[in-house]
Every structure is written in C-alpha cells, then in structure tokens.
Amino acid sequence: MSESPRVSRRSALRGAVVLGVGAAAGGGAVLTPTAAQAAVPRPTIASTSDWGARRPGSLTQLSNDPDKIVIHHTASANSNDFSLQHAYDLAYTIQGWHMNENNWSDSGQHFTISRGGHIMEGRHTSLRHLLDGDGMVQGAHAPGANTSGIGIENEGLYTSVLPTTQLWNSMVTFCAYICQQYGIRSSQIFGHRDFSATACPGNALYARLPQLRSEVQAKLDGGGGDPPDFQVVVDNGGSGFGASDNWGTSTYSSQRHGADYRFADPQTVSDAAYFRADIPAAGNYKIETWYPANAGYNSATPYVIYASDGNRTVHVDQRSNGGRWVSLGTFPLAAGNRSVVAVSRWTGTTGYVIADAVRISSA
C-alpha cells in the first residue's frame, strides 16, 4: 500500500505552508519543498510498497506521539554494496526474519538506513505517521520503548568500526527530520542498549551518539548562524599544519592531497599532528578529512576535534575511502586562530596513522 503524505497538524500550528505532492516511481510519495517550509526538509524515504514489503499482520496504531529515537544496528555484514536495490533487498530480508523467525506481525523497527545511505520505511504506516507528525504505530524493536520511541535499524555491525559516511549523514538528517516532525529534543536520541541488555548498536556507534545528538541539533538550529560560504582547506604542507619530527613525509600514494602527506607509527604517546585554522565566528562547522588509503594503514586513526563544548574523538578507517573528502561530522567551534583538528598516534590498532589535509566549512 502506497503511503500518501498529509500536512502535519504540528506544521500547521507552526504556520508552515502546504507542501506539494507528486508521485514517485514505484508508488512512493515525494514532497516538493517551498521556500517557507520548516528548517529540515524531508529526506527521500522509500515506502514499504517501494521495496515490495509483504502484507503485515495486525498492527497497533497509537494516538500518542513518540518522545524519543532509538538507534540500532542490524549486526549484519558491513556490505560494500551501496545500491538502492541492495537497500531494498535488506529491508525485505529484515521483514522476513522478523515475521518468520520472531513471529512478529511486521518489521520490528519503524525505519531502516542502508550503508549506502538509503532510508526506508520498515513497519507499515510508520511513514504516514511521520509525515503527519501525529501518532505512531507500535514497534517491536526495543522493549520499554516500543510505544514511545521511533526505532531506526542501521545496516552493519558497529562493535569496532563506524558507519559509512553515507549512512552517517543520512542518519543525522533523518533524525533531525523526525525530531522536527514530532517535537522531539535531540537529547532524546538513545541506543538500543539503553533499554535492554544488548550490545546493540555496537560499542563504536554507541560511543558516537553524543556527536549524533550534536549534529542533529545543528540541523534543527538551521546551521547555528554560521558565516555564509566559509571554507578553508588546511594541507599538511601549509602554515596551518604542525607535527614533530616523528612524523615522516611520503609521496607514495597518488591519492594524496597536495604534494605529499605525513605518517607515523601508532604509539600510546601525546604526539599528534595539528591542523590550525582561523575560524571567523562561533558556530557550527562541518569538518572533513582527506587521506590516501592503503591496506597497511590504520583501521581506527583517532581524529580529535577541539569543539567549543569539549574535545571529540572520531576514529577513521584509513584503509578505505581514500583520495576524497570524508566527513568527520559537524561541530561547534569558537572563533579565532586555533588548532581545530589533531590526528593522534594514540591508538591500539596497527598500521601507519596518516595526516594529510582537513577541510572546514560552514554547516
């Protein structure tokens, strides 16, 4: 059954305008944004009919709005197939497992995000409730939160590695949209383990939930008043970079940014490579890194971001996704000429840690 979006009663109370509706291929619905719409536009969300879901059993429709979001991981393989068809196959497989093995009436979670960043409705009628901003269908994803929390399954196993950039960016945008539609605070984003004795959503992803809440809040704040069109690239060969003599210089990889890049052996020592930038005004900034990838490089290189609300550490697998800008996230930064990012050698994993370039731009 195709889900047709209706205007949220909450949006109407906010004074939002009616959004145009168009038909998407496969029966999905597409909203055409207007200039007066809310701060977070609706992302592309595939309905259950789009991915060919089975007819569900009996579902309980609730009149109460959810007051939280619950993050899960599927604990399945970390697939490198980022296609839409793979995402649809994933949603279909999850529904089959939940209905056939768990004897549930439908997929337990409300929504699913693939490693390619594709967002899909999981449990029937979840999308209609979300677009209305009114009520919810009872889930089966987390005892203690099934009648009050929107469950999001994220494809992959995140006990020791982080989600792909595509998945992470979609999760941030989608959580912000859910918060906007239902009036949920960004602080009300939890992990499955907060409600049950489970490893879900994995140690690595669970440790990153504070950053998720911060990035979602930045989306809800409309970028936090950041200066328009600000962007700076700090390369390891420029004046904004600093590192000790323990950091070597290499031109080995063609994926490098600029003429060369820096490398060092991982050790439990305070010997980071620093990227400094002149931040024009306090606000939220997107930070990305560029590095050459190699199977012999580090799988969990620590990037320390000196945010205005406290230091954050993001671990990056430098064995893959090289030769491109990789998002570290969006962070609040103070104004002034200061160290913004440090690449640390302090990691228990093997392989060179790489410091090449950082890009900072207004969110």
From TrEMBL:
GO molecular function list: N-acetylmuramoyl-L-alanine amidase activity; zinc ion binding
Ranges where the Peptidoglycan recognition protein family domain occurs: 43-196
Pfam families reported for this sequence: Amidase_2, Golvesin_C
SUPFAM superfamilies on file: N-acetylmuramoyl-L-alanine amidase-like
Coiled-coil residue windows: none
Domain N-acetylmuramoyl-L-alanine amidase span(s) in chain numbering: 57-202
Gene3D superfamilies: Galactose-binding domain-like, Peptidoglycan recognition protein-like
Highest taxon, organism lineage: Bacteria
One GO-annotated biological process of the protein: peptidoglycan catabolic process
Family per record: Belongs to the N-acetylmuramoyl-L-alanine amidase 2 family.
Protein name: N-acetylmuramoyl-L-alanine amidase
